[in-house]
Design goal:
Length: 572
């Protein structure tokens, strides 16, 4: 009997425990005001900005406030959620208020700006932008400028008044319109960058010593070193927008290099100094294969600027894919999560990995160093191989708490908000518990020398020198999905064949090695022109079978090509 009672009491306790530990009231129930923010930012950022905004808001208004965070996943999930929410809300407005019939054509005009721009969709577009239709959310925060531009073009983001209240912030001296080709804010104020991020290589010094690599990687081409075989951590570019962006920068760098070599625009000496283009150690086998194919490594006859650019873009696209191919040949895996590579590098399971800078810095902070010695991990953003892009913030149409939402947006751009990104925990004006290890977007933040001792990264200044890579959005941004698709079928789907061929090539005599490498790097089926044409049409077709067909055909091509390259390398 006693045993049964003990079991019953134990079960009752387990059932009651969540209710006993639950807060008596939600924080928003105790606050005077609330703002609802949908975000992809992590828990550390949410906690520090929630606390910081509450302090700042109360000091200005005398009222308490809480941030009601809505976290549903990454930017792609947020995009789908916002679209569904606004479609449902506008449908009620269209049918109940305007007394008009709903149809599939009306919905297409609402969600597709190209349809809305056509004559048939103008009435729908006008009705939406003239309304105050909302989805119950106030602010969208975190992601890429591309994602925010899409939301703005769809009419879901509206201009925030901070641009009118603080015009002194929106200048080249504080928050430029763009930097190194990357947009930092919307001209109409519908989205504004709040923090910067870039991409680079996280490496484990112990692993480098184990592999006999004396010099840490400094540029993307260093990851093509055969000694990194099976040691590079990569994410699937079709699952991770961050790794797809890093791949885009790798391709853009090759385009810019090729344009300079052909005599196009740019400072050749400055670019070569920044990128080490003339040093034997950095001249990868990608470049060697190109020179073997053309029969010359010298300067080409001068051509018109447009012709030079067209040639540079096409050849740079292939050069970038060849470099990605070699890095992929050294890959240990292709994970769905962009957060896994830094963890595995930190644990020593991989020697190096490509990641966002703040993931790398956070892993360095978590791993620490051995006593008074050097840190176990290192992170480098390749000079000339990446630019700093923004994580924006935007005011959503129909925000139910608009005044508080406007205040939250303003706070993220004040120095009080900017300090949270890079000051150390516990320092005056810094975060309370977490070192966020991000770079503030405001240029004037870096002019405060007195803050350097308080910063997590005192030497980091994205505005200190001109970025050596000038991002040209029109060259690759419209093909980012195609690039990720090509990278997947080229590296991931045929990975076993690629690895075998790559290893056989490293052990082949020079003559067979050159022939096998040329076979491996035959990429005409995924040229820039094919990516713009057949591949783009297949990926954007409403018929999913088209995408599967192209994936199958390209997969078969690469598997056959890699098998043939291995055969040549082995002399069979």
């Amino acid at each position: 009997m006693i045993r049964r009672l003990l079991i019953l009491f134990t079960l009752a306790g387990l059932v009651a425990l969540p209710f006993l530990l639950r807060p008596k009231q939600r924080p928003s129930e105790n606050a005077d005001d609330v703002v609802v923010v949908i975000t992809s930012h992590n828990e550390a950022i949410r906690q520090e900005f929630g606390r910081g905004f509450a302090r700042w808001y109360q000091s200005r208004t005398g009222r308490t406030v809480t941030v009601d965070w809505r976290v549903i996943g990454g930017t792609s999930e947020i995009t789908r959620f916002l679209e569904a929410g606004y479609v449902a809300a506008f449908r009620r407005h269209w049918t109940d208020v305007l007394q008009r019939p709903w149809s599939a054509e009306v919905q297409r005009a609402l969600v597709d700006p190209s349809v809305a721009a056509a004559e048939s969709g103008r009435a729908v577009r006008a009705a939406f932008v003239d309304s105050d239709v909302g989805c119950g959310l106030d602010v969208f925060w975190g992601g890429a400028s591309y994602d925010f531009a899409r939301q703005a073009n769809a009419g879901r983001l509206v201009a925030a008044r901070v641009t009118q209240e603080h015009p002194e912030w929106f200048t080249d001296a504080v928050l430029p319109q763009e930097h190194a080709g990357e947009p930092y804010r919307d001209l109409e104020g519908r989205w504004i960058g709040t923090v910067l991020s870039s991409y680079g290589i996280l490496y484990n010094r112990d692993s480098l010593r184990r592999l006999g690599i004396e010099r840490p990687p400094e540029e993307w081409a260093d990851l093509a070193d055969p000694r990194f075989a099976g040691e590079v951590a990569l994410a699937d570019p079709t699952k991770s927008s961050s790794i797809a962006k890093a791949f885009e920068y790798i391709v853009q760098q090759q385009m810019q290099r090729r344009e300079i070599e052909l005599g196009g625009e740019g400072d050749r000496s400055q670019y070569r100094e920044a990128n080490g283009a003339a040093t034997p150690s950095s001249r990868s086998s990608v470049r060697a294969a190109e020179e073997d194919a053309t029969g010359s490594s010298g300067p080409q006859p001068r051509q018109p600027a447009a012709a030079i650019e067209q040639e540079a873009v096409s050849e740079g696209w292939l050069a970038g894919l060849r470099l990605l191919q070699q890095i992929g040949a050294n890959a240990r895996y292709f994970t769905d999560s962009s957060q896994k590579p830094p963890i595995d590098v930190g644990q020593g399971d991989c020697a190096a990995g490509i990641c966002i800078d703040f993931y790398g810095w956070a892993q360095m902070e978590a791993t620490g160093q051995r006593g008074a010695g050097e840190p176990r991990l290192g992170f480098v953003s390749p000079r000339g191989g990446a630019v700093h892009a923004v994580d924006p913030i935007g005011l959503l149409r129909g925000a139910p708490h608009r005044d508080v939402a406007e205040a939250f947006i303003e706070f993220t751009l004040t120095m009080d908000g900017q300090k949270l990104w890079n000051l150390r925990p516990g320092t005056p004006g810094g975060p309370t518990h977490f070192a966020l290890r991000r770079l503030p977007v405001r240029r004037d933040f870096y002019a405060h020398e007195e803050w350097k001792p308080l910063r997590s990264d005192p030497d980091a200044n994205p505005y200190a020198t001109e970025e050596q890579l000038i991002y040209r959005r029109e060259r690759t941004a419209p093909l980012i999905r195609e690039l990720a698709f090509i990278a997947r079928v080229m590296m991931q789907d045929a990975h076993p064949e690629l690895v075998r061929a790559w290893r056989a090539i490293q052990h082949a005599p020079e003559l067979r090695r050159s022939r096998a490498l040329a076979q491996l790097q035959e990429l005409s089926p995924v040229s820039y022109e094919r990516a713009q044409g057949e591949i783009r049409r297949a990926l954007r077709s409403s018929n999913r079978i088209e995408e599967l067909r192209v994936a199958r055909e390209l997969g078969e091509f690469f598997r056959h090509s890699y098998t043939e390259a291995e055969r040549i390398a082995r002399g069979e």
